[in-house]
UniProtKB/TrEMBL annotation:
It is an enzyme of class 3 (hydrolase). It comes from Daphnia magna. This is Glucosylceramidase. Coiled coil: none annotated. Keywords: Glycosidase, Hydrolase, Lipid metabolism, Signal, Sphingolipid metabolism.
Length: 141
């Protein structure tokens, strides 16, 4: 797969597909982005192209669309970053981590991540701290 940019937004998807079929392109799809706060997609000037042929085959250098020749770049999918735990590879809706984890020195495995549990002597300290995270925003401090 590859992508091209600077494609005018007023070109319709069907026009683009028809123009690119004879150049060995199986599918052409406009890349869209979310409009913050409105919930609607915005068309960008970029297209994602799927080429005919073997997987791993070298991409075509350029593609003609209308009277313009566009350079083709390899398409790289975005890496997801969780907004809950800030780890890569999953989204917040699929996150399995706790909202806050105790410091490593309070846990049995002495690591921030992993399957350790909070040691008995630190349990009440951590519980008080964790509860304060929810109480503090509601107070007028």
């Amino acid at each position: 797969m590859g992508d091209i940019s600077n494609v005018p937004i007023d070109y319709e998807d069907e026009e683009i597909k028809t123009a690119l079929e004879e150049q060995g392109i199986v599918e052409a799809r406009r890349i869209r982005r979310k409009n913050e706060g409105r919930g609607e997609d915005i068309r960008t000037n970029m297209l994602q192209l799927t080429f005919k042929g073997e997987l791993g085959q070298k991409l075509t250098d350029r593609v003609k669309l209308g009277f313009v020749s566009h350079p083709v770049r390899p398409f790289y999918r975005s890496i997801y970053k969780c907004k809950k735990c800030y780890r890569l590879g999953h989204l917040q809706i699929f996150c399995k981590s706790h909202p806050w984890s105790a410091p490593a020195w309070m846990k049995s495995n002495n690591e921030f991540y992993g399957q350790g549990y909070i040691l008995g002597e630190y349990y009440q300290i951590w519980a008080d701290y964790f509860a304060s995270l929810f109480i503090f925003p509601t107070s007028d401090v």
